Amino acid sequence: MSEKWIAGVDLGGTTTKLAFINLQGNILHKWEIPTDNSNEGLNITKNIADSINEKLAELNYPKTKLVGIGMGAPGPVDYKTGVILNVVNLGWKDNFPLRASLEELTLLPAAVENDANCAALGEMWMGAGEGARNLVCVTLGTGVGGGVISGGSIVQGANGAAGEIGHITVKPFDGAPCNCGKKGCLETVASATGIVRLATTEVAKQESSGKLVELFAKNGKITAKEVFDMARDGDEIAIKVVNEVCFHLGLSLANIANTLNPEKIVLGGGVSKAGEILLKSVNENFSRFAFSAVRNSTELALATLGNDAGVIGAAWLIKDKLKL
Amino acid sequence: MSEKWIAGVDLGGTTTKLAFINLQGNILHKWEIPTDNSNEGLNITKNIADSINEKLAELNYPKTKLVGIGMGAPGPVDYKTGVILNVVNLGWKDNFPLRASLEELTLLPAAVENDANCAALGEMWMGAGEGARNLVCVTLGTGVGGGVISGGSIVQGANGAAGEIGHITVKPFDGAPCNCGKKGCLETVASATGIVRLATTEVAKQESSGKLVELFAKNGKITAKEVFDMARDGDEIAIKVVNEVCFHLGLSLANIANTLNPEKIVLGGGVSKAGEILLKSVNENFSRFAFSAVRNSTELALATLGNDAGVIGAAWLIKDKLKL
């Protein structure tokens, strides 16, 4: 007898990740399709439904064994109504009824949530969360996203805007402009984009020298990965940039922890691939700024699921919704 | 037929507040007794039990109509076990089994919680919360406390240390020492003690002049209330101090809201009696530093219950526990 599967979907601006996941959270099959933003985004859910049917046929697996479809989407989602409030780059008009559309086209129970929240749920279920029911996840990518989980459930917020950790103001006076319209957000220093900006500013200074400066002179640009690599090699300018990033990140996370005292804070996203050099420095700043009882009980950890966190967390939505 | 009552208790270092509260949250009778810290605090719960019995006899009310006793205590509480972890000034040894002691002596179902959390629950139930199930309360008193409520329940944290809003670091570099052992905590600028410290520093500057300086010269001291009164009267030094306090408070609350997007943030405690001048300035800073979706949905409000918040929130614990 074949086991029950959940379809997990992680919708991105250019690519949609899909996976069949069992009730234990293991990915059995995963694949990707392009995201079709044309025609006001009306092909997006249809393509997902078709792709799932095709994959089931290809695997010769009965659709009756698929219990539901969970999906993460890049924008604020009202979990209760399943409506995605507003989203850039996908073509949908405001308040698109995403869950209803998925249910209609797949004929399956559906659940939708913000993608950063799905990543947080994924890490809680199968990743660095390791059973913690109270955790905060920070996604350090092109931007900085986040998800707050309390008692095993995502904290949604009054306007679906809980977890906007990237928009914590860390430089109230002389901060760089953020895409959100404010200045000095955490995202302006701790995202890949922010790290590149800090590094580019540093190497441009007349007194700067060293490997990072040479690399910039050669390539005309620097990546966030190169900054961490050079810092690991002892380059002074790179170390200075990493220290600034980790200072703001550690202070912000300590202040979040002073408020929520979560069991774990998980660092994910592309920037977190820097690994120990990032974690160690963030931890030092975290310890310095966390209240003693918090310092002793809230643990920082690197995400372990990588790009799979989103589809796994999306599948968890169905496991949770259907109480499986 | 007489209605059901709950006993609500707010334990302080010198005074214990008690009240009989009905299931609608209304205080029917309230009184106070001294807190007896002698004998390792072993008289505290006995005195409470005796006082409740005496008051019932005085009112000629049947004890069978008292459904339970809820209590707020000044220290970290493990809500599930009812143990108070450690507490200064009450005489109890670490890990005192507070709920068990109350149940044994009163023969009633009991529930215990941290006092700042009780105040938050009180404001949620009968005060400024006005039905909001997701709110953050900040108590601006001698220190700065806080309570975070998500989905109608207190966020406890891994070590009972959630809600330590007073220990958010607002001055990472040149902050004043805090009682918690860190430096530059919100408490060092936004508590009554912190406001007095800031004001005293300002008036001591050689170039300072005005009413606040004259008041300090006359009395040898300044109170937080006087700082707000003088600011309302247009005194420059007082306005400068209020601006600094409200800047740090508004920025910290905006960053909490960027993380949690609560429906309401309630300002309580003695300092909040400053009223509109405080709320307006905190709001201005909050709006400046909150993410747009948060700014538009998280509302700041002054607490409305004053000193009654604690006993009302303590009674709510029983209403919630017994599902009344």
Short description:
Chain A is of the alpha/beta class.
Structural class of chain A: alpha/beta
The fold-level CATH name of the largest domain in chain A is: Nucleotidyltransferase, domain 5
Question: Share of helix among residues of chain A?
Answer: 25-40%
Rg of chain A, alpha carbons: 21 Å
Task: Write a structural description.
The structure is a homodimer of 324-residue chains. Chain A has 324 residues and is an alpha/beta fold. Chain A folds into two domains: 5-122 and 308-321, ATPase, nucleotide binding domain (Nucleotidyltransferase, domain 5, 2-Layer Sandwich); 131-304, Nucleotidyltransferase, domain 5. Chain A contains eleven helices and twelve strands. Chain A has helices spanning 43-59, 98-106, 115-126, 187-190, 192-203, 211-219, 224-232, 236-260, 276-289, 292-295, 309-321, and strands spanning 5-11, 15-22, 27-34, 66-73, 77-78, 83-84, 110-114, 135-140, 144-150, 153-154, 264-268, 299-302. In chain A, strands 3-2-1-4-7 form a five-stranded mixed β-sheet, with helices on both faces. A five-stranded mixed β-sheet of chain A has the order 10-9-8-11-12, with helices on one face. At the A-B interface, strand 9, helix 8 and helix 10 of A face strand 9, helix 8 and helix 10 of B.
